[in-house]
């Protein structure tokens, strides 16, 4: 029925997305163990942490030490996130990590001000400076991120044209330099996306640069994460950011909202892909083990589903014990 | 793109699905309050409880008292679940409730034995007896349920042919009596469904009786609930069982699995429908209030998402306060 891709790639961001929002800083040894477990699952890319202001995000203050201590699986790209000059310089000092240079577009002033203390227009203008900077430094620009690509809690609804304008700007920068267009990422930073709007916006971005891969950074804030991924797969999207165990989200907002605005859950979405016959290169059973390690570290039930129910593998092989709880119907 | 229905109907089952699996019995007054709140949301049908063996399911022992105490909104159909003669007789004694007479098909002996202490074939044969019984009693048969329509933890994979065979049997009973075919429900009792298999099986069942409505009873056991609903909507399915706040699931199974195999979450799926432009007749904001009441009663965070993040209404109207926690990207 749909034109699903043969293979998709998940970029694991749980250790950053999950641990940066916890009120406490977990022992580094636990994060090392989790990252090492994730490295053995077949994940192609794993984000280790962010290089941001340690006064604002103290949970990420030891990101460079963390990066140094993990086992480096040569099959995995390890990435770091930064937002400014200082973070970039730290990242450059770490072998491998600065090859994850992104361009980042903000669509609402409110969110740009909050994350970067500058307007969306100022942030946009800076992207050309960043691009040339990266090129001069020999860094590979691996993605263009457009934030709040469906809407913004701070700035309200975001139109399709606002999204395509940002991508046009980015694409123009690469074309003017006769560079290939890197993967184009739409980020649903605050959980506004719904499946038909995923299709519509992915389709519109693809028209701008049919040769580019498209990626999504989705949050399961309002329960549509899985439906959005399914819609994106039907549009041929092959790159997804995700968080093991559904890590991430906000421990402070709203009605007992702890962790409910987390990223899409890596192992649940890997399960979805496998059920659709789409390859991921990931050993789901190993990833489930890693998600359970994440839950043991965090110390409360996390939002992932397959990590609690188990995959269907053992049931299909007739090896599962009675799963205990079932009810009519 | 897809041929979505104009309107769908949700059947709320949280008070049965959710409370029957808790290790304690909650005070009836709390369940009355929750049912009364749900009655004011625009839900067309609400299941009050089940009439089953109180030794096996003590949490449902006071279902008839509960039924008697709730305010009856004349716009709502209130239903009771039963599995045997004794339950049926109790249901008959309650005005209105016995018009929810279902036929129930089991596809694996293991699950049939567990729920009913009889084989799947014996259960199938009994359905004709039940149908004639219902007709003689003047009860309306409102649905045909086929359990474990994608697979069974106890009995393993279930083929498409096994599913269509069961529906053929049911459809034959109605056609032989020149009766209209009631809604045909596929139940994913244990969370084996995936979106393409939803499309495939819904399509196959529709071919058997194009004039019948199709309904789904889905569990979000493995994180695909929303994607499965979206797939079903694209096939024109208009009837969904669901549980407010994602109530339901198993407090005992697996790795800290409490509540993780719950039903699809009513308010999250109502939100999905509204985002797709599909009417539900439900006031989402009122339903979110009811879901928060459910969480307050149960006393621990429940699995619903919109109940924690809020809908997009206030954000779209520019009335929302800063949502506090957002992060890059």
Automatic annotation (TrEMBL), chains A, B:
Keywords: Lyase, Metal-binding. GO terms for molecular function: lyase activity. Residues 8-288 form the Pyruvate carboxyltransferase domain. SUPFAM superfamilies: Aldolase. Signal peptide: none annotated. The keyword Signal does not apply. It comes from the Bacteria. InterPro entries: Aldolase_TIM (IPR013785), HMGL (IPR043594), PYR_CT (IPR000891). The keyword Nucleotide-binding does not apply. It holds the Pfam family HMGL-like. Belongs to the HMG-CoA lyase family. This is Hydroxymethylglutaryl-CoA lyase. It comes from Banduia mediterranea. The lineage of its organism: Bacteria, Pseudomonadati, Pseudomonadota, Gammaproteobacteria, Nevskiales.
